[in-house]
Amino acid sequence: MPERSPERVKKSTRLNIRASHSQKELITRAAQLRQKTVSDFILENAYEAAKAILAEQNQFKLSDEQWEAFCKALDRPPQVIPALQTLMTEPGVFDE
Hints:
Helix 1 crosses helix 2. By secondary structure, the protein is mainly α. It is elongated, with a radius of gyration of 25 Å. It has one domain (21-89). The chain has helices at 21-33, 38-56, 64-75, 82-89.
């Protein structure tokens, strides 16, 4: 399902925020430069910031060197860990 931008979705929930006078003036000036209402400007920017923050939880970026090291680690044969082999071959508490 394609993601819809906040301005195309029916807005049925209210957000209330408090700001200092200088914060409101700055936001108002920026909104005017973008030819947006203050509400639309705040909503669009908060929405994009929230998406970016949440994407950080699912995605990560690596340098070329880090990527190469990551790929090499994935390609290496698995290490033999005797304790793990024992754990995985013995019956568990719910198996009896």
